[in-house]
Amino acid sequence: MKNFLETNSYRLLKEHYNRIKGVQLRDLFASSPRRFDEFSIKFEDLLFDYSKNIITSETIELLIGLAEEQKLSEMIEKMFSGEKINNTENRAVMHFALRQREKDASVDDVFQVRNQMRNFVNLIHSGDWKGCTGETITDIVNIGIGGSDLGPKMVCKALEAYSVGNIKTHFVSNVDGTNIVETLKNLNLERTLFLISSKSFTTQETLTNAVTAKAIFLEKLAKEEKDIAKHFVAVSTNEKDVKEFGIDPKNMFVFWDWVGGRFSLWSSIGLPIALQIGMDNFEKLLDGANAMDLHFKNTDFRENIPVLAALLSLWYTNFFNAKSHCVIAYDQYLEKLPDYLQQLEMESNGKSVSRDGEALSYSTSPIIFGGVGTDSQHSFFQLLHQGTQLIPVDFFAPVNSLNPVGNHHNILLSNFFAQTEALMNGKSREEAKLDLEQSGLGAEEIQKLLPHKIFKGNRPSNSFLYKKMTPAVLGSILSMCEHITFVKGIMWNINSFDQWGVELGKQLAKKILPELSGKEKILSHDSSRNGLINFFKENKE
Ligand code: G6Q
Predict the structure, then answer these.
(1) What are the residues whose beta carbons fall under 8 Å from the beta carbon of 260, sequence distance 6 or more?
(2) Whose CA is nearest to atom 9 of ligand 1?
(3) Tell me, what DSSP letter sits at residue 473?
(4) Is the pTM of this model over 0.85?
(5) What is the CATH T-level fold of the domain 4-69+299-425+459-491, as seen in this structure?
(6) pLDDT above 90 covers what percent of the chain?
(7) pLDDT of 376
(8) Nearest alpha carbon to residue 154 among 10, 1, 429, 343
(9) CA atoms of 148 and 510, how far apart (whole Å)
(10) I need a surface site. Which of 229, 248, 303, 401 has the fewest CB within 10 A?
(11) Which of the two residues, 222 and 144, has the higher pLDDT score?
Protein backbone atom coordinates (compact mmCIF):
# COMPACT_ATOMS: atom_id res chain seq x y z
CA MET A 1 0.00 0.00 0.00
CA LYS A 2 1.32 3.40 -0.86
CA ASN A 3 0.30 6.96 -1.52
CA PHE A 4 -2.13 6.23 -4.31
CA LEU A 5 -1.17 9.43 -6.13
CA GLU A 6 2.12 7.68 -6.89
CA THR A 7 0.56 4.61 -8.48
CA ASN A 8 0.46 3.91 -12.17
CA SER A 9 -3.31 3.37 -11.91
CA TYR A 10 -3.78 6.85 -10.50
CA ARG A 11 -1.93 8.34 -13.48
CA LEU A 12 -4.11 6.35 -15.88
CA LEU A 13 -7.25 7.33 -14.00
CA LYS A 14 -6.29 10.98 -14.08
CA GLU A 15 -5.90 10.84 -17.86
CA HIS A 16 -9.18 8.97 -18.12
CA TYR A 17 -10.87 11.55 -15.90
CA ASN A 18 -9.72 14.37 -18.17
CA ARG A 19 -11.31 12.58 -21.11
CA ILE A 20 -14.56 11.66 -19.36
CA LYS A 21 -15.32 14.54 -16.98
CA GLY A 22 -17.51 16.42 -19.47
CA VAL A 23 -19.49 13.35 -20.55
CA GLN A 24 -23.23 13.57 -19.91
CA LEU A 25 -25.04 10.73 -18.16
CA ARG A 26 -27.99 11.19 -20.52
CA ASP A 27 -25.65 10.49 -23.46
CA LEU A 28 -24.13 7.45 -21.77
CA PHE A 29 -27.63 6.00 -21.37
CA ALA A 30 -28.64 6.93 -24.90
CA SER A 31 -25.59 5.23 -26.37
CA SER A 32 -25.92 2.02 -24.37
CA PRO A 33 -29.36 0.46 -23.89
CA ARG A 34 -27.80 -2.22 -21.69
CA ARG A 35 -26.26 0.27 -19.28
CA PHE A 36 -28.48 -0.75 -16.36
CA ASP A 37 -27.64 -4.44 -16.86
CA GLU A 38 -23.98 -3.60 -17.10
CA PHE A 39 -23.87 -1.46 -13.98
CA SER A 40 -26.22 -3.14 -11.51
CA ILE A 41 -25.87 -6.11 -9.18
CA LYS A 42 -28.49 -8.22 -7.43
CA PHE A 43 -27.56 -9.64 -4.06
CA GLU A 44 -30.29 -11.67 -2.32
CA ASP A 45 -33.16 -9.19 -1.69
CA LEU A 46 -31.07 -6.18 -2.61
CA LEU A 47 -30.53 -4.45 -5.95
CA PHE A 48 -27.54 -2.13 -6.33
CA ASP A 49 -27.91 0.16 -9.33
CA TYR A 50 -24.79 2.19 -10.01
CA SER A 51 -25.51 2.98 -13.64
CA LYS A 52 -26.17 6.67 -12.93
CA ASN A 53 -22.51 7.41 -12.25
CA ILE A 54 -20.18 9.30 -14.54
CA ILE A 55 -18.35 6.14 -15.52
CA THR A 56 -17.74 3.74 -18.38
CA SER A 57 -16.54 0.16 -18.17
CA GLU A 58 -13.01 1.55 -18.56
CA THR A 59 -13.46 3.64 -15.40
CA ILE A 60 -14.36 0.53 -13.44
CA GLU A 61 -11.40 -1.40 -14.81
CA LEU A 62 -9.02 1.43 -13.92
CA LEU A 63 -10.47 1.82 -10.42
CA ILE A 64 -10.10 -1.91 -9.86
CA GLY A 65 -6.52 -1.61 -11.08
CA LEU A 66 -5.98 1.00 -8.39
CA ALA A 67 -7.51 -1.32 -5.78
CA GLU A 68 -5.12 -4.03 -6.86
CA GLU A 69 -2.13 -1.71 -6.65
CA GLN A 70 -3.25 -0.71 -3.17
CA LYS A 71 -3.27 -4.41 -2.23
CA LEU A 72 -6.93 -4.42 -1.29
CA SER A 73 -7.22 -8.24 -1.57
CA GLU A 74 -4.33 -8.69 0.85
CA MET A 75 -5.85 -6.30 3.35
CA ILE A 76 -9.25 -8.04 3.13
CA GLU A 77 -7.46 -11.31 3.78
CA LYS A 78 -5.60 -9.78 6.73
CA MET A 79 -8.78 -8.47 8.31
CA PHE A 80 -10.62 -11.78 7.95
CA SER A 81 -7.68 -13.69 9.36
CA GLY A 82 -7.57 -11.54 12.48
CA GLU A 83 -4.29 -9.69 11.86
CA LYS A 84 -3.77 -6.54 13.89
CA ILE A 85 -4.59 -4.13 11.09
CA ASN A 86 -5.58 -1.38 13.53
CA ASN A 87 -1.90 -0.45 13.74
CA THR A 88 -2.10 2.62 15.99
CA GLU A 89 -3.93 0.69 18.70
CA ASN A 90 -2.27 -2.64 17.93
CA ARG A 91 -5.61 -4.43 17.62
CA ALA A 92 -7.30 -6.85 15.28
CA VAL A 93 -10.49 -5.72 13.54
CA MET A 94 -12.94 -8.56 13.78
CA HIS A 95 -16.51 -7.32 13.89
CA PHE A 96 -17.22 -9.89 11.15
CA ALA A 97 -16.59 -12.63 13.76
CA LEU A 98 -19.65 -11.43 15.70
CA ARG A 99 -21.93 -12.55 12.90
CA GLN A 100 -20.26 -15.75 11.77
CA ARG A 101 -22.19 -19.00 11.94
CA GLU A 102 -21.05 -21.24 14.81
CA LYS A 103 -19.48 -23.80 12.44
CA ASP A 104 -17.17 -21.12 10.98
CA ALA A 105 -16.44 -19.40 14.28
CA SER A 106 -13.18 -17.47 14.60
CA VAL A 107 -13.89 -16.77 18.29
CA ASP A 108 -15.79 -19.19 20.54
CA ASP A 109 -16.52 -16.61 23.25
CA VAL A 110 -18.88 -14.87 20.84
CA PHE A 111 -21.33 -17.74 21.18
CA GLN A 112 -21.12 -17.86 24.97
CA VAL A 113 -22.10 -14.21 25.16
CA ARG A 114 -24.81 -14.73 22.57
CA ASN A 115 -26.26 -17.50 24.74
CA GLN A 116 -26.08 -15.26 27.77
CA MET A 117 -27.97 -12.61 25.78
CA ARG A 118 -30.59 -15.16 24.69
CA ASN A 119 -31.20 -16.29 28.27
CA PHE A 120 -31.49 -12.74 29.47
CA VAL A 121 -33.83 -11.67 26.65
CA ASN A 122 -36.01 -14.72 27.36
CA LEU A 123 -36.18 -13.86 31.06
CA ILE A 124 -37.30 -10.32 30.26
CA HIS A 125 -39.81 -11.38 27.59
CA SER A 126 -41.32 -14.20 29.64
CA GLY A 127 -41.77 -11.86 32.59
CA ASP A 128 -39.68 -14.13 34.80
CA TRP A 129 -37.26 -11.24 35.38
CA LYS A 130 -38.92 -9.05 37.96
CA GLY A 131 -38.06 -5.57 39.10
CA CYS A 132 -37.54 -4.90 42.80
CA THR A 133 -41.27 -4.41 43.42
CA GLY A 134 -42.21 -7.58 41.55
CA GLU A 135 -43.22 -5.83 38.32
CA THR A 136 -42.16 -7.09 34.91
CA ILE A 137 -39.92 -4.96 32.67
CA THR A 138 -41.48 -2.94 29.84
CA ASP A 139 -38.97 -0.15 29.26
CA ILE A 140 -35.28 -0.41 28.45
CA VAL A 141 -33.12 2.68 28.84
CA ASN A 142 -29.79 2.34 27.05
CA ILE A 143 -27.21 4.71 28.50
CA GLY A 144 -24.26 5.00 26.11
CA ILE A 145 -22.77 7.36 23.55
CA GLY A 146 -21.09 7.24 20.13
CA GLY A 147 -20.68 3.65 19.02
CA SER A 148 -22.50 2.49 22.15
CA ASP A 149 -25.57 4.46 21.10
CA LEU A 150 -25.82 5.28 17.38
CA GLY A 151 -25.83 1.74 15.99
CA PRO A 152 -28.36 0.20 18.42
CA LYS A 153 -30.53 3.33 18.28
CA MET A 154 -30.61 3.27 14.48
CA VAL A 155 -31.39 -0.47 14.34
CA CYS A 156 -34.11 -0.26 17.01
CA LYS A 157 -35.79 2.40 14.88
CA ALA A 158 -35.24 0.52 11.61
CA LEU A 159 -36.70 -2.71 12.98
CA GLU A 160 -39.49 -1.17 15.05
CA ALA A 161 -42.00 -3.24 13.07
CA TYR A 162 -40.39 -6.43 14.41
CA SER A 163 -40.80 -5.51 18.08
CA VAL A 164 -42.02 -8.33 20.27
CA GLY A 165 -44.17 -8.00 23.37
CA ASN A 166 -44.59 -4.55 24.78
CA ILE A 167 -40.94 -3.69 25.28
CA LYS A 168 -39.96 -0.11 24.45
CA THR A 169 -36.37 1.02 24.07
CA HIS A 170 -35.13 4.51 24.96
CA PHE A 171 -31.69 6.00 24.44
CA VAL A 172 -29.84 8.45 26.65
CA SER A 173 -26.53 9.61 25.26
CA ASN A 174 -26.02 13.32 25.81
CA VAL A 175 -24.49 14.59 29.04
CA ASP A 176 -27.01 17.44 28.80
CA GLY A 177 -29.24 16.66 31.81
CA THR A 178 -32.27 17.32 29.64
CA ASN A 179 -31.70 14.02 27.87
CA ILE A 180 -32.03 11.81 30.94
CA VAL A 181 -34.60 13.95 32.74
CA GLU A 182 -36.95 14.08 29.75
CA THR A 183 -36.48 10.37 29.04
CA LEU A 184 -37.29 9.30 32.58
CA LYS A 185 -40.19 11.73 32.99
CA ASN A 186 -42.85 9.39 31.67
CA LEU A 187 -41.33 6.07 32.65
CA ASN A 188 -42.41 3.88 35.52
CA LEU A 189 -39.13 3.04 37.28
CA GLU A 190 -40.62 -0.18 38.63
CA ARG A 191 -40.80 -1.47 35.06
CA THR A 192 -37.57 0.08 33.79
CA LEU A 193 -34.26 -1.61 33.12
CA PHE A 194 -31.09 0.45 32.58
CA LEU A 195 -28.41 -0.88 30.24
CA ILE A 196 -25.14 0.89 30.88
CA SER A 197 -23.35 0.43 27.57
CA SER A 198 -19.74 1.45 27.48
CA LYS A 199 -16.82 -0.46 26.04
CA SER A 200 -14.35 1.36 28.28
CA PHE A 201 -16.73 2.12 31.17
CA THR A 202 -14.82 5.36 31.62
CA THR A 203 -16.70 7.63 29.21
CA GLN A 204 -17.63 10.84 31.01
CA GLU A 205 -21.07 11.28 29.45
CA THR A 206 -22.15 7.69 30.02
CA LEU A 207 -20.89 7.49 33.58
CA THR A 208 -22.46 10.84 34.47
CA ASN A 209 -25.81 9.65 33.11
CA ALA A 210 -25.41 6.25 34.77
CA VAL A 211 -24.65 7.83 38.16
CA THR A 212 -27.69 10.09 37.79
CA ALA A 213 -29.92 7.15 36.82
CA LYS A 214 -28.67 5.21 39.84
CA ALA A 215 -29.22 8.18 42.17
CA ILE A 216 -32.78 8.70 40.88
CA PHE A 217 -33.45 4.99 41.22
CA LEU A 218 -32.09 4.85 44.78
CA GLU A 219 -34.05 7.94 45.76
CA LYS A 220 -37.36 7.05 44.17
CA LEU A 221 -37.63 3.29 44.21
CA ALA A 222 -34.96 1.14 45.75
CA LYS A 223 -35.21 0.09 49.36
CA GLU A 224 -31.73 -1.34 49.45
CA GLU A 225 -28.54 -1.30 47.37
CA LYS A 226 -29.12 -4.86 46.14
CA ASP A 227 -32.27 -3.78 44.29
CA ILE A 228 -29.86 -2.27 41.75
CA ALA A 229 -29.17 -5.75 40.39
CA LYS A 230 -32.76 -6.02 39.20
CA HIS A 231 -32.71 -2.76 37.27
CA PHE A 232 -29.13 -2.21 36.08
CA VAL A 233 -27.07 -4.32 33.73
CA ALA A 234 -23.84 -3.44 31.95
CA VAL A 235 -22.38 -4.02 28.52
CA SER A 236 -18.65 -3.49 28.67
CA THR A 237 -15.13 -4.82 28.34
CA ASN A 238 -14.16 -3.44 31.76
CA GLU A 239 -15.31 -5.80 34.52
CA LYS A 240 -13.45 -4.02 37.30
CA ASP A 241 -15.16 -0.67 36.83
CA VAL A 242 -18.54 -2.29 36.24
CA LYS A 243 -18.22 -3.98 39.63
CA GLU A 244 -17.15 -0.74 41.28
CA PHE A 245 -20.21 0.99 39.89
CA GLY A 246 -22.31 -1.54 41.78
CA ILE A 247 -23.42 -3.83 38.96
CA ASP A 248 -23.17 -7.54 39.63
CA PRO A 249 -20.71 -9.06 37.07
CA LYS A 250 -23.38 -11.75 36.56
CA ASN A 251 -25.39 -8.98 34.93
CA MET A 252 -22.55 -7.91 32.71
CA PHE A 253 -22.32 -8.72 29.01
CA VAL A 254 -18.79 -8.60 27.70
CA PHE A 255 -17.30 -7.87 24.33
CA TRP A 256 -13.73 -7.53 23.15
CA ASP A 257 -11.09 -5.00 22.19
CA TRP A 258 -11.16 -6.25 18.58
CA VAL A 259 -14.63 -4.73 18.20
CA GLY A 260 -14.45 -1.01 17.47
CA GLY A 261 -17.18 1.09 19.07
CA ARG A 262 -18.79 2.10 15.77
CA PHE A 263 -18.69 -1.53 14.60
CA SER A 264 -20.15 -2.97 17.80
CA LEU A 265 -23.91 -3.19 17.31
CA TRP A 266 -23.45 -6.88 16.45
CA SER A 267 -21.96 -7.61 19.88
CA SER A 268 -23.63 -7.37 23.27
CA ILE A 269 -23.87 -3.63 22.53
CA GLY A 270 -26.84 -4.86 20.45
CA LEU A 271 -28.64 -6.00 23.62
CA PRO A 272 -31.31 -3.26 23.35
CA ILE A 273 -31.96 -4.46 19.80
CA ALA A 274 -32.32 -8.07 20.95
CA LEU A 275 -34.61 -6.99 23.78
CA GLN A 276 -36.80 -5.07 21.36
CA ILE A 277 -37.04 -7.56 18.47
CA GLY A 278 -36.20 -10.83 20.21
CA MET A 279 -33.09 -12.96 19.88
CA ASP A 280 -34.30 -14.84 16.77
CA ASN A 281 -34.68 -11.60 14.86
CA PHE A 282 -31.35 -10.34 16.21
CA GLU A 283 -29.73 -13.49 14.81
CA LYS A 284 -31.39 -12.85 11.44
CA LEU A 285 -29.78 -9.41 11.48
CA LEU A 286 -26.42 -11.12 12.10
CA ASP A 287 -27.09 -13.65 9.32
CA GLY A 288 -27.83 -10.87 6.83
CA ALA A 289 -24.57 -9.19 7.81
CA ASN A 290 -22.69 -12.47 7.54
CA ALA A 291 -24.04 -13.07 4.02
CA MET A 292 -22.67 -9.67 2.99
CA ASP A 293 -19.33 -10.45 4.71
CA LEU A 294 -19.01 -13.58 2.59
CA HIS A 295 -19.99 -11.70 -0.56
CA PHE A 296 -17.34 -9.06 0.21
CA LYS A 297 -14.67 -11.60 1.04
CA ASN A 298 -15.25 -14.00 -1.83
CA THR A 299 -16.56 -12.04 -4.80
CA ASP A 300 -14.50 -10.74 -7.69
CA PHE A 301 -14.14 -6.95 -7.42
CA ARG A 302 -16.16 -6.46 -10.64
CA GLU A 303 -19.22 -7.94 -8.93
CA ASN A 304 -18.40 -6.91 -5.38
CA ILE A 305 -20.94 -4.37 -4.07
CA PRO A 306 -18.90 -2.81 -1.21
CA VAL A 307 -15.77 -2.62 -3.35
CA LEU A 308 -17.54 -0.95 -6.28
CA ALA A 309 -19.48 1.47 -4.06
CA ALA A 310 -16.26 2.46 -2.27
CA LEU A 311 -14.34 2.97 -5.50
CA LEU A 312 -17.14 5.15 -6.88
CA SER A 313 -17.04 7.29 -3.76
CA LEU A 314 -13.28 7.67 -4.19
CA TRP A 315 -13.79 8.53 -7.88
CA TYR A 316 -15.85 11.58 -6.89
CA THR A 317 -13.73 12.56 -3.87
CA ASN A 318 -10.34 12.36 -5.49
CA PHE A 319 -11.04 13.11 -9.14
CA PHE A 320 -14.19 15.26 -9.23
CA ASN A 321 -13.14 16.94 -5.97
CA ALA A 322 -16.51 16.25 -4.30
CA LYS A 323 -16.43 17.35 -0.67
CA SER A 324 -19.59 15.70 0.57
CA HIS A 325 -21.74 12.65 0.09
CA CYS A 326 -25.46 12.54 0.67
CA VAL A 327 -27.53 9.60 1.93
CA ILE A 328 -31.29 9.63 1.42
CA ALA A 329 -33.61 6.90 2.65
CA TYR A 330 -37.07 6.63 1.12
CA ASP A 331 -37.87 4.55 4.15
CA GLN A 332 -39.03 6.13 7.38
CA TYR A 333 -37.57 3.19 9.28
CA LEU A 334 -34.11 4.32 8.17
CA GLU A 335 -34.47 7.82 9.54
CA LYS A 336 -31.41 7.40 11.74
CA LEU A 337 -29.22 5.85 9.04
CA PRO A 338 -27.51 9.15 8.07
CA ASP A 339 -26.50 9.79 11.72
CA TYR A 340 -25.08 6.31 12.00
CA LEU A 341 -23.23 6.54 8.67
CA GLN A 342 -21.87 9.92 9.64
CA GLN A 343 -20.01 8.31 12.52
CA LEU A 344 -19.08 5.18 10.61
CA GLU A 345 -17.50 7.06 7.72
CA MET A 346 -16.35 10.34 9.22
CA GLU A 347 -14.86 8.92 12.42
CA SER A 348 -13.22 6.10 10.48
CA ASN A 349 -11.93 7.99 7.48
CA GLY A 350 -11.69 11.59 8.69
CA LYS A 351 -7.88 11.36 8.76
CA SER A 352 -5.06 13.43 7.35
CA VAL A 353 -2.06 11.18 7.94
CA SER A 354 -1.30 7.79 6.42
CA ARG A 355 -1.05 4.53 8.35
CA ASP A 356 2.64 5.36 8.80
CA GLY A 357 1.99 8.87 10.02
CA GLU A 358 2.85 10.76 6.84
CA ALA A 359 0.84 13.85 5.95
CA LEU A 360 -1.56 13.13 3.08
CA SER A 361 -1.71 15.26 -0.03
CA TYR A 362 -5.16 14.07 -1.11
CA SER A 363 -8.68 14.24 0.31
CA THR A 364 -10.07 11.50 2.52
CA SER A 365 -13.60 11.15 3.89
CA PRO A 366 -16.23 13.41 2.39
CA ILE A 367 -18.76 15.04 4.71
CA ILE A 368 -21.71 12.70 5.09
CA PHE A 369 -25.16 14.15 5.48
CA GLY A 370 -28.66 13.15 4.61
CA GLY A 371 -32.17 12.43 5.76
CA VAL A 372 -35.38 10.76 4.69
CA GLY A 373 -37.21 11.33 1.45
CA THR A 374 -39.59 13.03 0.96
CA ASP A 375 -38.79 15.42 3.85
CA SER A 376 -35.29 16.17 2.54
CA GLN A 377 -36.76 17.10 -0.85
CA HIS A 378 -38.58 19.96 0.84
CA SER A 379 -35.49 20.94 2.76
CA PHE A 380 -32.03 20.76 1.15
CA PHE A 381 -32.56 19.13 -2.25
CA GLN A 382 -32.44 22.58 -3.83
CA LEU A 383 -28.66 22.53 -3.33
CA LEU A 384 -28.34 19.00 -4.72
CA HIS A 385 -30.11 20.06 -7.91
CA GLN A 386 -28.96 23.61 -8.48
CA GLY A 387 -26.09 24.28 -6.05
CA THR A 388 -22.53 24.86 -7.21
CA GLN A 389 -21.09 21.60 -5.84
CA LEU A 390 -21.20 18.08 -7.15
CA ILE A 391 -22.65 15.88 -4.41
CA PRO A 392 -23.02 12.15 -5.10
CA VAL A 393 -26.17 10.71 -3.52
CA ASP A 394 -26.93 7.21 -2.24
CA PHE A 395 -30.64 6.39 -2.24
CA PHE A 396 -32.16 3.57 -0.19
CA ALA A 397 -35.75 2.41 -0.75
CA PRO A 398 -37.94 -0.66 -0.12
CA VAL A 399 -40.07 -2.21 -2.87
CA ASN A 400 -42.74 -3.06 -0.30
CA SER A 401 -43.87 -0.99 2.61
CA LEU A 402 -44.37 -2.62 5.99
CA ASN A 403 -47.26 -0.19 6.44
CA PRO A 404 -49.24 -0.30 3.23
CA VAL A 405 -51.84 2.39 3.55
CA GLY A 406 -53.72 4.09 0.72
CA ASN A 407 -51.43 5.06 -2.13
CA HIS A 408 -48.60 6.27 0.15
CA HIS A 409 -45.97 3.83 -0.99
CA ASN A 410 -46.40 4.42 -4.71
CA ILE A 411 -46.32 8.16 -4.09
CA LEU A 412 -43.17 7.76 -2.00
CA LEU A 413 -41.39 5.58 -4.56
CA SER A 414 -42.45 7.75 -7.48
CA ASN A 415 -40.60 10.57 -5.72
CA PHE A 416 -37.52 8.41 -5.30
CA PHE A 417 -37.45 7.39 -8.98
CA ALA A 418 -38.16 10.97 -10.03
CA GLN A 419 -35.38 12.48 -7.94
CA THR A 420 -32.74 10.17 -9.36
CA GLU A 421 -33.97 11.07 -12.84
CA ALA A 422 -34.02 14.81 -12.14
CA LEU A 423 -30.49 14.70 -10.74
CA MET A 424 -29.26 12.83 -13.76
CA ASN A 425 -31.10 14.50 -16.61
CA GLY A 426 -31.64 17.98 -15.23
CA LYS A 427 -33.58 20.36 -17.42
CA SER A 428 -31.91 22.02 -20.37
CA ARG A 429 -32.36 25.65 -21.44
CA GLU A 430 -34.60 24.53 -24.31
CA GLU A 431 -36.77 22.35 -22.07
CA ALA A 432 -37.07 25.06 -19.44
CA LYS A 433 -37.97 27.63 -22.11
CA LEU A 434 -40.65 25.39 -23.55
CA ASP A 435 -42.16 24.91 -20.08
CA LEU A 436 -42.31 28.65 -19.53
CA GLU A 437 -43.81 29.27 -22.95
CA GLN A 438 -46.45 26.65 -22.32
CA SER A 439 -47.34 28.31 -19.04
CA GLY A 440 -48.35 31.38 -21.06
CA LEU A 441 -45.67 33.84 -19.91
CA GLY A 442 -44.54 36.73 -22.11
CA ALA A 443 -41.09 36.86 -23.71
CA GLU A 444 -39.67 39.40 -21.24
CA GLU A 445 -40.82 37.40 -18.23
CA ILE A 446 -39.42 34.20 -19.74
CA GLN A 447 -36.07 35.86 -20.31
CA LYS A 448 -35.94 36.90 -16.66
CA LEU A 449 -36.95 33.55 -15.21
CA LEU A 450 -35.13 31.22 -17.58
CA PRO A 451 -31.72 31.04 -15.83
CA HIS A 452 -33.45 30.09 -12.56
CA LYS A 453 -35.35 27.25 -14.20
CA ILE A 454 -32.39 25.45 -15.71
CA PHE A 455 -31.07 22.28 -14.01
CA LYS A 456 -27.61 21.29 -15.21
CA GLY A 457 -28.17 17.64 -14.28
CA ASN A 458 -25.36 15.10 -14.62
CA ARG A 459 -25.40 14.62 -10.86
CA PRO A 460 -24.49 11.04 -9.96
CA SER A 461 -26.38 8.69 -7.67
CA ASN A 462 -26.48 5.08 -6.52
CA SER A 463 -29.76 3.32 -5.78
CA PHE A 464 -30.12 0.54 -3.24
CA LEU A 465 -33.55 -1.02 -3.67
CA TYR A 466 -34.55 -3.88 -1.35
CA LYS A 467 -37.65 -6.06 -1.29
CA LYS A 468 -38.68 -4.89 2.17
CA MET A 469 -37.12 -3.90 5.45
CA THR A 470 -36.29 -7.10 7.36
CA PRO A 471 -33.62 -7.87 9.95
CA ALA A 472 -31.61 -9.78 7.32
CA VAL A 473 -31.84 -7.01 4.72
CA LEU A 474 -30.80 -4.42 7.28
CA GLY A 475 -27.90 -6.62 8.38
CA SER A 476 -26.68 -6.86 4.79
CA ILE A 477 -27.00 -3.11 4.21
CA LEU A 478 -25.08 -2.21 7.37
CA SER A 479 -22.36 -4.77 6.80
CA MET A 480 -22.04 -3.41 3.25
CA CYS A 481 -21.61 0.12 4.65
CA GLU A 482 -18.91 -1.08 7.06
CA HIS A 483 -16.99 -2.70 4.22
CA ILE A 484 -17.35 0.39 2.01
CA THR A 485 -15.72 2.38 4.81
CA PHE A 486 -12.96 -0.22 5.16
CA VAL A 487 -12.18 -0.28 1.42
CA LYS A 488 -11.92 3.50 1.26
CA GLY A 489 -9.53 3.48 4.21
CA ILE A 490 -7.31 0.96 2.44
CA MET A 491 -7.35 2.95 -0.79
CA TRP A 492 -6.39 6.11 1.08
CA ASN A 493 -3.78 4.21 3.11
CA ILE A 494 -5.20 5.36 6.44
CA ASN A 495 -6.14 3.48 9.60
CA SER A 496 -9.96 3.53 9.66
CA PHE A 497 -10.11 1.95 13.09
CA ASP A 498 -8.79 4.58 15.47
CA GLN A 499 -10.32 7.94 16.40
CA TRP A 500 -7.66 10.03 18.10
CA GLY A 501 -9.34 13.16 16.78
CA VAL A 502 -12.01 12.97 19.47
CA GLU A 503 -9.45 13.10 22.32
CA LEU A 504 -8.25 16.70 22.35
CA GLY A 505 -11.62 18.29 23.11
CA LYS A 506 -12.21 15.71 25.86
CA GLN A 507 -8.89 16.56 27.54
CA LEU A 508 -9.57 20.28 27.41
CA ALA A 509 -13.09 19.85 28.81
CA LYS A 510 -11.58 18.03 31.80
CA LYS A 511 -9.30 21.00 32.49
CA ILE A 512 -12.09 23.54 32.13
CA LEU A 513 -14.68 21.70 34.26
CA PRO A 514 -13.24 22.74 37.67
CA GLU A 515 -12.95 26.36 36.48
CA LEU A 516 -16.71 26.55 36.07
CA SER A 517 -17.31 26.32 39.84
CA GLY A 518 -16.49 29.15 42.26
CA LYS A 519 -16.57 32.90 41.78
CA GLU A 520 -13.03 33.83 40.70
CA LYS A 521 -12.51 35.36 37.27
CA ILE A 522 -10.75 33.12 34.75
CA LEU A 523 -7.76 34.65 32.98
CA SER A 524 -5.71 31.61 31.99
CA HIS A 525 -7.05 31.06 28.43
CA ASP A 526 -7.17 33.19 25.31
CA SER A 527 -9.42 36.25 25.53
CA SER A 528 -12.35 34.57 23.78
CA ARG A 529 -12.43 31.56 26.08
CA ASN A 530 -11.91 33.76 29.17
CA GLY A 531 -14.75 36.00 27.98
CA LEU A 532 -17.12 33.11 27.37
CA ILE A 533 -16.31 31.33 30.64
CA ASN A 534 -16.60 34.54 32.67
CA PHE A 535 -19.93 35.43 31.03
CA PHE A 536 -21.14 31.92 31.95
CA LYS A 537 -19.98 32.34 35.59
CA GLU A 538 -21.45 35.82 36.00
CA ASN A 539 -24.83 34.81 34.66
CA LYS A 540 -25.18 31.35 36.14
CA GLU A 541 -28.26 31.21 38.40
C1 G6Q B 1 -16.53 4.62 18.14
C2 G6Q B 1 -15.81 5.43 19.09
C3 G6Q B 1 -16.69 6.14 20.07
C4 G6Q B 1 -17.10 5.31 21.27
C5 G6Q B 1 -17.68 6.24 22.33
C6 G6Q B 1 -18.18 5.52 23.54
O7 G6Q B 1 -16.01 3.92 17.33
O8 G6Q B 1 -14.84 4.67 19.68
O9 G6Q B 1 -17.84 6.71 19.48
O10 G6Q B 1 -18.00 4.34 20.90
O11 G6Q B 1 -16.71 7.19 22.70
O12 G6Q B 1 -17.15 4.77 24.11
P13 G6Q B 1 -17.43 3.72 25.25
O14 G6Q B 1 -18.27 2.64 24.66
O15 G6Q B 1 -16.09 3.24 25.71
O16 G6Q B 1 -18.19 4.45 26.33
Answers:
(1) 86, 93, 95, 147, 497
(2) 146
(3) H
(4) yes
(5) Rossmann fold (3.40.50)
(6) 94
(7) 98
(8) 343
(9) 21
(10) 303
(11) 144
